Amino acid sequence: MHTQDSGQVVGALEWYPPGRLLGWAALMAGVLAGILVLVLGYDQEAYRQSIREILEHSTLKELDRDGTLFTEETIASLSGMLARALPAAFAVIWLTITLFNLWMAGLIVDASGRALRPWPNLHALELPNAFVLIFAVALVASFLPGLAGLLATGLAGALLFAYVLQGLAVIHVYSRGVPLRALLLAAVYLGILLLGWVAIAVAILGLGEPLFRLRGRGNEHGPPPSSDGSV
Fold first, then answer.
1. 148 vs 6, 43, 139, 145, 223, CA distance in Å?
2. Taking 80 as the threshold, does the pLDDT of residue 225 lie above it?
3. Across residues 17-44, what is the average pLDDT?
4. End-to-end C-alpha distance for the chain, whole angstroms
5. Which has the closest alpha carbon to 169: 16, 17, 13, 24?
6. What is the distance between the alpha carbons of residues 144 and 150, in angstroms, rounded to a whole number?
7. What CA–CA distance (Å, rounded) separates 37 from 4?
8. What average pLDDT does this structure show over 76-93?
9. pLDDT (tens digit, 9 = 90+) per residue, 115-148?
10. Would you say the C-alpha torsion 25, 26, 28, 33 has a positive or negative sign?
C-alpha cells in the first residue's frame, strides 16, 4: 500500500501470477486441439478417415513403394493410435512452443532493460486450485467414446503438461541443499523425456502441491531462490 499526494490510498502493484498465465495457456491449447479434431471430422468416423487419408498420402508411404511396410493393416493400426493421441500431442506441442516463446520474449525484454515487470519467481509457479477440478473432469471425459472423448483428450493432455511444470517447480525448490542436486534434476528431466511414468509422477506431485505444500518445507532447509528465478 502507498499514498498519493492527494491522500488517496492506492493498493500495491501486483503482477498477474505466472501460474494463471500457464493455466490460460493450457486452456487455449485444449481448445485449439478440439478445433483441430473438428476440422478433421465432425464425427469420430470422419475424423479417423481423415487421419487415415493423411497417412496414405504421406511421404513415408511414398518411400514404401512396394507396400511391404505400410500395408492396409499397418495403416489401419497406425491411424487408430494416431487418431487417439493426436489431440493431446497437439495440445502439448502447442503449449510447449507458446511457453518457450513467452520465456524467450521475457528474457530478451529483461536483458534490454525495458521490462516493466520484474522477472517472476518461476519456482513459485502454481495453478489456481480450480484447475484441479477442470483437469479431473477432462481426464474422466477423455475415456468417453466418440468425439466427446477426443475433444476432452486435448484439454486433459494440456493440463497434464501444466501440472508437470508445476511438479518440476516443486522439485526445484524441495531439492535445495540436496547432495548432487544437479544430477538429480538432470535425471528427472531425462526421465520425463524418455519415460512416460516419470512425467505422470511429476504431474501427480504438482497436483498434490496445494495439499502437501512441499515447497514450504523445501524453503526451510535450502537457500532462497535468486532474484531471476534461476535454479
1. 57, 9, 12, 7, 47
2. no
3. 92
4. 31
5. 17
6. 8
7. 53
8. 88
9. 788 888 888 889 999 999 999 999 999 999 888 9
10. positive
Question: In sequence order, what E strands does 32-169 have?
Answer: none
Is residue 2 classed as helix, strand or coil in its secondary structure?
strand
For residue 10, the cross-strand partners are 2
Residue positions counted in the chain: 231
Q: Which residues are CB-neighbours of 225 under 8 A, at least 6 positions away? A: 121, 123, 173
Residue 218 neighbours by CB under 8 Å, 6+ apart: 170, 173, 174, 175, 176
Residues 163 and 127: their CA atoms lie apart, in Å, by: 8
What dihedral angle (degrees, nearest 10) is formed by the CA atoms of 73, 71, 34, 31? 120
* 65 half-sphere exposure, CB direction, 13 A CA radius: 0
Torsion of Cα atoms, 55 then 59 then 60 then 64, to 10°: 110
Rounded-to-integer distance, Cα 38 and Cα 32, Å: 10
Contacts of 94 (CB under 8 A, 6+ apart): 29, 32, 33
Query: What is d(CA 166, CA 128) in angstroms, rounded to the nearest whole number?
Result: 11
3-state SS, 184-225, equals: HHHHHHHHHHHCHHHHHHHHHHHHHHHHHCHHHHHHHCCCCC
Does the global pTM surpass 0.85?
no
> Would you say the C-alpha torsion 125, 132, 28, 200 has a positive or negative sign?
positive
Q: Give the angle 92-96-98 at the CA atoms, nearest 5°.
A: 120
Single-letter code of the amino acid located at 68 = T
